[in-house]
Amino acid sequence: MDSSLNIDQNTLSPAATIPKRDRKTLAYQDFAQGLSQWRIWLLLAYQDIKLRYRRSILGPFWITLSMAITVYSMGFLYAHLFKIDMRQYYPFLVAGMLAWSLISTVIIELTDTFIVYDGLIKQIKLPYSLYIHRVAARNIIIFFHNLLVMIPVLVIFHDSIKVNFYTLLLIPNLLLIYINIFTFGMILAIIGARYRDISQIIKSLIQVAFFVTPVMWNPIVLPLQYQKMIHLNPFYIFVELLRAPLIGAPNSLSIIAIALFITVIGTSICALMFARYRGRIIYWL
Amino acid sequence: MAIIDIRNVSVEFPVYNLSARSFKKRFIRMATGGAVVEDAHQHVVVNALKDITLTARDGDRIGLVGHNGSGKSTFLRLLSKIYEPTTGDIHIDGNISPLLDIMQGIEAEFTGYENIITRGTVLGLSRKQIDDRVQDITEFSGLGDYLSMPIRTYSSGMRVRLAFAISTSIKPDILLIDEVFGAGDANFMDKARTRMITLLQQSSIVVMATHSDELIREFCNKVLLLDGGHIKYFGDVEEAMKLYRGEK
How far is B140 from chain A (nearest CA, A)? Predict the structure, then answer.
């Protein structure tokens, strides 16, 4: 019965020992391959959107339309409820809602990444980071569809908001946000795969976060001593990174500094966690 | 030059959702043949593969046999680099094509062509390589104009034909097969068989899990007999089949 094992020993493999690749290298390779296989995740992201709106006449522009209906009606309602000047409030709300919908949706969806794609993960070896990119890219594409909602606002309220140099900052800010989506998305996806309650917790937290984050209300209504406290809310930081360029306003230096700080923290935690748990993810699915 | 080199590899699955442990523990042991133990964190752990050591080189055609739950699929996924060993070392050289669950990832709302593109891209082909293969896939699957229709309009046989045609259009160094013979109707099965044989001949190393003795006797020069996650026998085909069938 054991004769087979003897055969093996006679023809022992060329390399006497298998070169060990440590966790850090493997994690790094996953990140690198995830980036280099951008064709795969971009195609999958694009197909996710195509699939969602297949057989509808407007197609992906339902994203734009439903967003338009929501924010335009919210704008009217709250401007009247709060008795605020429409010309200031309307663009603020619309831009803020665009930012918020990107950030909130991407967080919720990323937490479930590995759970949703477990079929594919168990069938073919692709880098784990590729799935994070897929969800992130999908939401960025949706964000670009949503951006069209800003155009009528820019036209109607042309005297209170402008397209200017600051609008261009949308591009670097989006890049910074993408990095954070990736790093925090990876962290959440790993935890979400291991502890299935996390995605429910995240969903409830996001709802609360919507009200404590200045999206519907402007932070200037707060008393001065509380205005600084808002900076402790990371959602505010990232909403502001998108909202300010959209309404042609500059980002304050403190916002940018905090955003960079969060990026460094997130990247470190993400790298450590991914190196530590990458090999385990598959066993949690 | 393809090579598979596995040293003392074990694969353990943590099972997190066992509430009534003692009862389920017994049940799982009965049903799977895999030993169920608890790890340091009090999680129930299934030992799917235990202390596997083997080497495969160019020209090896390995038939993988064993009862249900003996670790065949886990072993194939280990070779596909999907599962990483809990302990031990693994080294695989050469690009791998796993034909494990070919229907996975076929999207019903998309047309045949769209599925070819998606699938091809996921398997690592460039757009040009995919375009080169479309003709071959169309011909082989015999789906013709159906390829521009959504998959949901296909019969189940047609779906299998498409999935099979796409998955087998890639020429890997290492081919891993999990019971993919027997697709479609009798006519297609003949074609599928011919194509599989070509693919088998073109690959450097083949590992094939199957319950068909004829296939193993026809194609394999070695058999790996798994039992409860252990290697029970690795080597000569006839010897292995005798062991495998004899114990039944």
Answer: 23
